[in-house]
Design a protein that fits this description.
The protein has 444 residues and is α/β, with parallel strands linked by helices. It has three domains: 85 residues, Four Helix Bundle (Hemerythrin (Met), subunit A), CATH 1.20.120; 186 residues, Rossmann fold, CATH 3.40.50.300; 146 residues, Signal recognition particle, SRP54 subunit, M-domain (434 Repressor (Amino-terminal Domain), Orthogonal Bundle), CATH 1.10.260.30. The protein has an eight-stranded mixed sheet with strand order 3-2-4-1-5-6-7-8, sandwiched between helices. A hairpin with a 7-residue loop joins strand 7 and strand 8. Helix 4 crosses helix 11, helix 5 packs parallel to helix 6 and helix 17 packs across helix 20. The longest helix is centred in the C-terminal third of the chain and has 21 residues. Bound molecules: guanosine-5'-diphosphate. GO terms for molecular function: 7S RNA binding; endoplasmic reticulum signal peptide binding; GTP binding; GTPase activity. Its main location: cytoplasm. Belongs to the GTP-binding SRP family. SRP54 subfamily.
């Protein structure tokens, strides 16, 4: 089951409960059963599901609730907290230090998304002011170095690799030594994968680890591997003792619950999630915002209906969406419309991603956040506004210019563009009207 489907099912169970004629213990148990089924179908480990059910039951203590209690609120909070607990290992991930050389080594099976994610992460740190570089120690897969090189050139990140040296340990050591001498702050080492967990892979990982002494080892897990994620992460943990997980392809049709279960199995935090093939499709992971987004998603249709009911001027955007497009200008128009629609907290929850961004903010804070987003758009050129946003990736200095012009930060510009891209991806899938939209919602 796709993660967003999972969110929708859980939301549905909560809504059914609150709509039940009498909110009694039977209805509460029914909701728990539905949530448990949804989690199991998304490949979340069955023991975790059973625990979650027990935790919610004991937290809520339904039979002891006083008649005046806001049962709906209490139950919603218990469900939210229990879901957060599944993805929260209560371990602080490693934070790189400025002015020092921080070595980050990637491990994972072939095809998991290591090479792609290495560059995404390098760019992420680079945009935050770290001197960042890449080392390709994947000498096993033909073309791996070339792939990393192409990505690195596109993102303007220094890289190291060899076309002649076949020993990955030598390449890793040489690359890390070189970049350490040059005082790089984030040195990301990509390593080989194999199609399966096999001894040769594990032996190589250990050798590279002892040669480069990483400050952090990151395991890259493909969200679509489902139940297998747990055994795989345990096997890697035993050998490479990674300290963080990045889950890739959360945008795909994935049984993402399996990968999430890996967190509990290995007591290791997820630090980022990959949300697409693009360089900017990497989101920092936070358990609370992940769950709120998971639960907050899936009301795009509600949003469209609400917008239509307000009779706001949507012509151009709607036309674009039916053509599968969603430009930065469309994003700006939508932001402005949202400001007219209020109450903001409700509206933000309807837009994928926006509720996560606005979490913990009251309506006034949210309103000022939206205004800043509009200022960002207003500092763009006409061409940039009407673009699909790719020009900012190709020329990151544009983001710096826009941030300066709007009195905001590069991070905020990036956030806005990520948001616009998400909407753009949805628009692509929405070609073909409401039926297409419903399908798109199930796929995002
Ligand atoms: P590696 O063998 O582990 O280095 O894997 P690659 O980095 O070559 O990635 C394998 C494939 O997965 C490539 O086609 C990537 O574009 C794709 N990929 C990686 N991360 C993501 C993601 O977050 N979403 C999607 N949709 N595709 C991804």
């Amino acid at each position: 089951m796709v993660l967003q489907d999972l969110g929708r099912r859980i939301n549905g169970a909560l809504t059914d409960l609150t709509r039940a004629p009498t909110l009694d213990e039977k209805a509460f148990d029914g909701m728990l059963r539905e949530i448990a089924n949804a989690l199991a179908e998304a490949d979340v480990n069955i023991k975790l599901v059973a625990n979650l059910r027990k935790t919610i039951k004991t937290t809520v203590k339904f039979s002891e609730l006083p008649p005046s209690a806001n049962k709906k609120r209490i139950i919603q909070k218990a469900v939210f907290d229990a879901l957060v607990d599944i993805v929260n290992p209560h371990q602080k991930p490693f934070e790189p230090r400025k002015g020092k050389s921080n070595v980050i080594m990637f491990v994972g099976l072939q095809g998991a998304g290591k090479t792609t994610t290495c560059t995404k992460l390098a760019r992420w740190y680079q945009a935050r002011g770290f001197r960042t570089c890449l080392v390709c120690a994947d000498t096993f897969r033909a073309g791996a170095f070339d792939q990393l090189k192409q990505n690195a050139i596109k993102a303007k990140i220094p890289y190291y690799g060899s076309l002649t040296q076949t020993d990955p340990v030598v390449v890793a050591r040489d690359g890390v030594e070189k970049f350490k001498k040059e005082k790089f702050e984030i040195i990301i080492v990509d390593t080989s994968g194999r199609h399966q967990q096999e001894n040769a892979l594990f032996a190589e990982m250990v050798e590279i680890q002892s040669a480069v002494q990483p400050h952090q080892t990151v395991m890259v897990l493909d969200a679509s591997i489902g139940q297998a994620a747990e055994a795989q992460s345990r096997a890697f943990k035993e050998t490479a003792d990674f300290g963080a997980i990045i889950i890739t392809k959360t945008d795909g049709a994935a049984a993402g619950g399996g990968a999430i279960s890996a967190v509990a199995a290995t007591h290791t935090p997820i630090v980022f999630i990959g949300t697409g093939e693009h360089l900017l499709d990497l989101e920092k992971f936070n358990p609370e915002s992940f769950v709120s987004k998971l639960l907050g998603m899936g009301d795009m249709q509600g949003l469209v209906e609400h917008v239509q009911s307000l009779k706001l001027d949507q012509k151009d955007t709607m036309k674009n969406i039916t053509e599968g497009k969603f430009s930065v200008r469309d994003m700006r128009d939508q932001l402005q419309n949202i400001m007219k629609m209020g109450p903001l907290s409700k509206m933000a929850g309807m837009i994928p991603g926006l509720s996560g961004m606005m979490q913990g903010m009251d309506d006034a804070d949210g309103q000022s956040k939206l205004k800043r987003m509009i200022y960002i758009c207003d500092s763009m050129t006409v061409k940039e506004l009407d673009s699909d946003g790719k020009c900012f990736v190709e020329q990151p200095t544009r983001m710096v210019r826009v941030a300066r012009g709007s009195g905001t930060s590069v991070r905020e510009v990036e956030e806005l563009l990520t948001q616009q891209r998400m909407m753009g991806n949805m628009a692509k899938k929405m070609k073909g009207g409401l039926a297409g939209m419903q399908k798109a919602q199930q796929q995002v």
